[in-house]
Amino acid sequence: NVVAAIEDYARQEDYQAVEMRLPPHAFHKRPFECLEFALHFHKFSVVRAEMTSTVDLTENDDLMLTLQAKTRNQLKQGLKSGLQAGPSEDYDQYWEILSSNLESKYGVNPTHSLEEIKKLRTLAPDAFQLFAAREDEHMAAGVLLVACNSMTAHTFYMASRPEDQPRRPLNLALYAAMCGAKEQSFKRLNFGVSTP
Question: What tens digit of pLDDT does each residue of 45-67 get?
Answer without folding.
Answer: 888 877 788 889 998 888 888 88
